[in-house]
Amino acid sequence: MSLRTSRPARAGQYLALLCYLVFLAFPFLWLISTAFKPAPELGSLHPTWIPENPTLDNFRQAFDEQPLLRAAANSLVAALSAGLIAVVIATPMAYVMARHRTRLSTAATGWVVISQAFPFVLLIIPLFLVLKNLHLINTLWGLIMVYVVWALPFALWMLVGYVRAVPPELEEAAAVDGAGRLRTLVSVTAPLLAPGIVATALFAFITAWNEFFFALVLLKTPEKQTLPVVLTHFLGAEGASDLGPLAAAAFLATLPSLVLFAVIQRRITGGMLAGAVKS
After folding, report:
1. Distance (Å, whole) CA 261 – CA 254
2. Dihedrals φ, ψ of 277, to 5°?
3. Under a CB-based contact definition with an 8 Å cutoff, are residues 35 and 248 in contact?
4. Which of 13, 199, 178, 8 is nearest to 90 (CA)?
């Protein structure tokens, strides 16, 4: 009887998952379809899923109208730098907070979670004044600092969970075998934390790559603007948009995140037990 009742339940779960996947994939699939449609099909009263006469004109027009490569390079520098710096800072902090639980570390963890509720508008004025005093307004390094500060709390919260999931007995066993603290961290703990570090870096990268508000406020010259800001240049007066080139540029803007996740996702679980094997 339990088997009979579990099959409908499992089928319902798969159906719900399929509906959720369709819900997530629909905007991206429609974006791809729009990017390859010629102008007459974009203005058609009866839109189709698959372009009847696919074309690359939207992509050529997008590159002709806006400096997408330069903007993509700015976004890549800012996102990679923010992800790496956030991980380098958060990893030792997370280890200390997870292994040495005190009232101070508990309060710090709570503050990390609460800080994520602060709206962007509340922070932009203090950040602008601080960066102005440091002469970092309209610079990529100023924007990178903001991205690191914004990603650091959540990165720290994620890594604390990963560190707590590593059994302390493994470190104790390494210490019994004569390994020092540094050797234990490098040979035992670090390989187990690798999936968490990769996942955290990926989160920080995607957050910085897609960020728009801080880049809009802090970067003024066109040469310094990031890709999300440049995409708004395809919007005309009163909300009118150059839909074909905008869809083509937006499709290209999503590719780095997808490619990076496809390359890294196999490594997220690959090193989960690497540090637990004693040679």
Report:
1. 11
2. -90, 125
3. yes
4. 199
Q: One digit per residue, pLDDT tens: the chain, 279 residues?
A: 444 557 777 888 888 888 888 888 888 888 888 889 888 888 777 778 888 888 898 999 999 988 999 999 999 999 999 999 999 998 888 888 887 777 776 776 677 667 667 777 777 888 888 888 988 899 999 999 999 988 888 888 888 888 888 888 887 787 787 777 777 777 777 788 888 888 888 888 988 999 998 999 889 888 899 999 999 888 766 556 778 888 899 999 988 888 887 777 665 554 444 434 443
Place of tokens 């890294």: 264
CA dihedral 126, 130, 135, 139 (to 10 degrees): -60
Q: Enumerate residues 6+ apart whose C-beta is below 8 A from 224.
A: 74, 138, 139, 140
